[in-house]
Design brief:
mainly beta, 27-stranded parallel beta sheet
């Protein structure tokens, strides 16, 4: 005998045979079956104490001591009713035998084997099946005489080494009493329950046992609380001919809501992707699904723990972390979601052999979103990362994707080659966005700093590319290193909000893009080789260096030229650099700078990389009036002495006369 859990079970041989267990308030008397294979249930001679189980008896049907037939375990007369007393248990100990095929009988067109009832006032009916196999148990129904007294803890327990198969297990929805909780089925370690039909309004406590559904739609019409509850350990749930088959077909149904607790795991065997139910809760446990799970529209995965296997979130689905959550597996397409991924203040790791793809919105509130080993995170078109925290992954964003910092600072990318590559839109708001890459990052078609007159900051420590047709706009600061090898290469357009709300570069900047309402506090080297650069309201700060390359006499193709259509504010250092082996001669003139209006002047002009031949010198006398610098001849020292001597003699003669 096994310890008593709550459970149901029994079978009918004659028409309309029914086993009905109901709670009573009388004392307990145990009657033990002695009727053998073909004894009649309601015959007192077939019970050890001469009393048929009913009011007020318990019943124990023990077939371990001499049961021979495998055809029929025992017989029920038509409409036989066994009354179940309060707290009593009917236990069927099969003695390791198989009870064989029991024919179904029909009541109102439905095959019914047994009822398990509960009574108000705390009474409950329980059946425990142990040590053997009970095939074709028929339709198991939890029932009571009135809707108000439904269930009250009625239960069916499949004990260790017991195997039960049934057509269906259910409780009528019309008799569901939510304040009392659902009746439950417990499956202990090494116990199995196979349901060929459907299950409704029943909770399953899978304590190491195996629950199998051989129907494509076992939870049809289900509307009650979670059908899986309690401590789930060692659970292997199978469904259909190939396992728990939430296959991605039009006819396949899905698993109803369930929970997996810490230290527990639920293994899903499926021939295709298994569709999770309305709400799947992880409280530290693991879902193992080698062929993957899908979260459908309007459905959710909530908690912390792991889903080991490919994970697919469909549009309108949601994944919400309440602790550290690992999702996906190291296979191609190991993780993808077009729904919401709510990292919140926690850590979510996405595992995929190639890219973990986010086509919906991933939101962070101080948490961390990261990729697994050697993986990366990609935003698809329409996908977004929003919030503040850390995205610790090699990152790629498609055109039409979004990165938006809200509520605090956001760091994204990884210090590896290709650590950050974005073709979409990035907005800092009034926060700081830090982009990580071991080489230059690629900025997308639109990067916006600041919001509502408040400045934002973009940090790209190893520089970035802004390609043709792309823009940086807004109000704030772009920080990068002031080193040519880590330069910001700007071939697109940079546009500050206004002359009072400018965009400020603190690092090395080069490229053939345009700049409007921009402050340079680092090095500005117009062009990629000599070029004409167009700016509007450019300010060169105290620490700025304007590098102008000179390799010939033609502006744009042989030397740099800067044209400001607005107000040019000069400061810092002008640095001239001779390139391509060019050696200017006396009279060479270079129109370096044009402006509509200007203020200020350079604090220093650096000729260290623009050395001239002996007898030549740079002339910057027209720099602040016409923007010209030129090369002029310097007289030899001997010629200067000769001229001085002639002038002295002339003065002496005049004095003598």
């Amino acid at each position: 005998m096994v310890s008593f859990y709550r459970v149901f079970c029994c079978v009918g041989l004659f028409a309309f045979g029914v086993l009905l267990l109901q709670g009573q308030t009388l004392g307990q008397i145990t009657s033990t079956w002695t009727g053998g294979a073909y004894g009649t249930w309601n015959s007192a001679a077939n019970w050890n104490n001469g009393s048929v189980p009913g009011q007020p008896h318990n019943g124990v049907a023990d077939f371990g001591g001499g049961f021979q037939s495998v055809a029929v375990p025992f017989q029920l007369n038509s409409f036989t009713r066994i009354q179940k007393i309060s707290g009593g248990v009917l236990e069927l100990n099969l003695g390791g035998l198989t009870m064989g095929t029991v024919p179904h009988y029909t009541m109102s067109g439905l095959p019914i084997t047994a009822f398990i009832g509960g009574e108000s006032g705390g009474a409950h009916a329980n059946i425990t099946v142990t040590n053997g196999t009970w095939n074709n148990a028929g339709r198991i129904q939890f029932l009571s005489t009135t809707a108000s007294s439904f269930n009250q803890g009625a239960s069916l327990t499949i004990g260790r080494n017991a195997n039960v198969s049934a057509e269906s297990i259910y409780a009528p929805i019309s008799q569901h009493l939510t304040t009392q909780g659902l009746p439950f089925v417990s499956i202990l370690s090494q116990g199995t329950l196979t349901v060929s039909g459907f299950s409704q309004q029943v909770q399953y406590r899978l304590n190491g046992g195996v629950l199998s559904f051989n129907s494509s739609n076992p939870f049809q019409g289900y509307s009650g609380p979670q059908p899986f509850t309690g401590s789930q350990s060692g659970v292997v749930m199978t469904w259909g001919t190939g396992g728990l088959q939430f296959t991605a077909t039009a006819t396949a149904d899905d698993l109803a809501s369930f929970s997996v607790a810490a230290g527990r795991s639920a293994t899903v065997h499926s021939t295709g992707v298994a569709n999770l139910g309305q709400t799947t809760n992880l409280t530290g446990g693991t879902i193992l699904a080698s062929n993957g799970v899908a979260i459908g529209q309007g459905r959710s995965l909530v908690g912390y723990g792991a889903v080991s296997g490919p994970v697919i979130g469909q549009a309108g689905s949601s994944i919400t972390a309440t602790g550290v959550l690992d999702l996906g597996s190291n296979v191609i397409g190991g993780f993808r979601t077009d729904g919401a991924l709510n990292v919140q203040s926690h850590k979510v790791r996405l595992h995929s052999q190639n890219q973990a793809l986010i086509g919906g919105v991933a939101s962070l509130s101080g948490g961390t979103l990261e990729s697994g080993t050697n993986g990366s995170i990609a935003l698809g078109s329409g996908g977004a990362i929003s919030g503040h925290g850390l995205v610790n992954a090699k990152f790629e964003g498609a055109a039409g994707s979004y990165i938006v910092a809200t509520g605090g600072n956001l760091t994204i990318g990884r210090e590896v080659t290709g650590g950050f590559f974005h073709l979409g839109q990035l907005a800092t708001s009034n926060n700081t966005v830090t982009v990580l890459n071991s080489t230059r990052s690629t900025l997308g078609n639109q990067t916006t700093l600041g919001v509502n007159d408040m400045a934002g900051t973009l940090i790209v420590s190893n520089g970035a590319f802004l390609e043709f047709g792309r823009t940086i706009t807004g109000f704030g600061t772009i920080d990068s290193q002031n080193v040519a090898s880590k330069a910001m290469i700007i071939n697109g357009d940079v546009i500050g909000n206004s002359a009072s709300q400018q965009l400020t570069f603190n690092g090395y900047v080069k490229g053939i893009g345009t700049f409007e309402n921009v402050v340079m506090n680092g090095t500005f080297a117009p062009g990629l080789s000599p070029a004409i650069s167009h700016v509007d309201n450019l300010t060169l700060g105290n620490n700025a260096v304007l590098e102008m390359e000179i390799g010939g006499l033609t502006p744009g193709s042989q030397y740099d030229k800067l044209i400001d259509s607005g107000l040019l504010a000069l400061n810092g250092t002008l640095k001239l650099i001779l390139i391509d082996g060019y050696n200017p001669t006396a009279g060479a003139t270079f129109d370096l700078i044009d402006w509509n209006s200007s203020i200020g002047s350079f604090a220093n002009i650096d000729f260290s990389l623009a050395g001239l031949d002996t007898g030549l010198a740079w002339d910057t006398s027209a720099l602040y009036t016409t923007g010209l610098v030129s090369v002029t001849a310097v007289p030899e020292p001997s010629a200067i002495l000769l001229v001085g001597s002639v002038m002295a003699m002339t003065v002496a003669r005049r004095r003598r006369t």
